[in-house]
């Protein structure tokens, strides 16, 4: 009996089509990166979670610290070592024209003695407001904390540049005013000094001490007084009188001013520089004309000085007008009447 051949012919695999190759390649490309993506995502997720936990813990600690400080801050700030006594409140030395105890008045009025604490968040604002409200202080420039507990306050003081003469009962008051028209305390400026300051007349009413005059004429008058301050005495000037009504130039309205010398000379000065009137001469030009007048006609402190001087648009000098004696009726024997 013949044996069957057990050897089986190998079956050749069928060639895959191009489409199958493309699919296989696509599957391989798709599966290869996807196998690593979950691990990366998990790692990033774990790190992010830890970061959030850390941030949360830090936030809770900060919130807790703030809560504790808010409750403890008033107690700590009120400790004696942080409270500032009156003798440790230092300020800029007042100038010679102020005789008042400005520092003492501020401390007393605001109640600053041992009330200020270096740890108080409102410390700078409290100090600034206390000093800025004083009528002699123009500005608070710097506040510096000192150790041990103290404070240095640098300020700019107001300076009287003129007085406003105003009627009061049967007398007249001389109210000091600074270059911004602020009413200064009269009792702090000796009368002898006020009598020699430029005197502004024709102003009615007065604001409270420390506030500005609302009358716009005051602003121009104090500007002229401040600019003439260095030569006021040398020129023997005494008063500044503003016009009662403004002059008009086009659409602009402005007041004009007259200076009166101690000898009675009336000087037509014109508008103040701040009015900026078109065509008006500069302040320095007007002052130079006034100096020329003094050089030609002598000082303005006697009855021999000119009666009027106009420095607007040139120098014009007028003679002093002397009043004639009243006419008398004289009877003659023949009945004639003569003057």
From TrEMBL:
Keyword Cell division: yes
Stretches with biased composition (Basic and acidic residues): 1-15
Keyword Cell division (UniProt): yes
Key words of the record: Cell cycle, Cell division, Membrane, Transmembrane, Transmembrane helix
Top-level taxon of origin: Bacteria
Annotated segments matching region Disordered: 1-21
GO BP term, pick one: cell division
Transmembrane segments: 51-69
Name of protein: Cell division protein FtsQ
Organism: Lacipirellula limnantheis
């Amino acid at each position: 009996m013949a044996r069957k051949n057990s050897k089986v012919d190998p079956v050749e695999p069928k060639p895959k089509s191009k489409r199958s190759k493309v699919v296989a390649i696509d599957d391989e490309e798709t599966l290869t990166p996807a196998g690593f993506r979950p691990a990366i995502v998990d790692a990033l997720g774990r790190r992010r979670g830890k970061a959030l936990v850390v941030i949360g813990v830090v936030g809770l600690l900060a919130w807790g610290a703030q809560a504790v400080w808010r409750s403890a801050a008033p107690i700590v700030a009120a400790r004696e070592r942080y409270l500032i006594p009156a003798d440790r409140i230092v300020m800029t030395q007042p100038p010679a024209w102020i005789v008042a105890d400005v520092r003492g008045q501020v401390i007393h009025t605001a109640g600053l003695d041992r009330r200020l604490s270096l740890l108080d968040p409102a410390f700078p604002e409290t100090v600034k407001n206390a000093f800025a409200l004083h009528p002699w202080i123009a500005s608070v420039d710097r506040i510096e904390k000192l150790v041990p507990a103290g404070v240095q306050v640098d300020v700019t003081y107001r300076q009287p540049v003129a007085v406003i003469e105003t009627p009061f009962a049967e007398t007249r008051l001389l109210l000091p005013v600074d270059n911004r028209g602020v009413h200064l305390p009269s009792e702090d400026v000796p009368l002898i000094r006020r009598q020699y300051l430029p005197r502004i007349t024709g102003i009615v009413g007065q604001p409270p001490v420390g506030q500005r005059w609302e009358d716009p004429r005051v602003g121009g008058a104090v500007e002229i007084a401040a600019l003439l301050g260095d030569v006021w005495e040398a020129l023997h000037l005494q008063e500044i009188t503003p016009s009662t009504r403004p002059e008009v130039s086009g659409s602009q309205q402005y007041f004009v001013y007259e200076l009166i010398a101690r000898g009675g000379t009336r000087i037509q000065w014109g508008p103040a520089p701040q009015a900026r009137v078109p065509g008006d001469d500069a302040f320095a030009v007007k002052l130079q004309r006034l100096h020329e007048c003094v050089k030609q006609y002598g000082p303005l402190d006697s009855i021999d000085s000119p009666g009027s001087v106009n420095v607007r648009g040139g120098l014009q000098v007028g003679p002093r007008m002397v009043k004639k004696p009243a006419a008398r009726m004289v009877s003659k024997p023949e009945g004639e009447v003569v003057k």
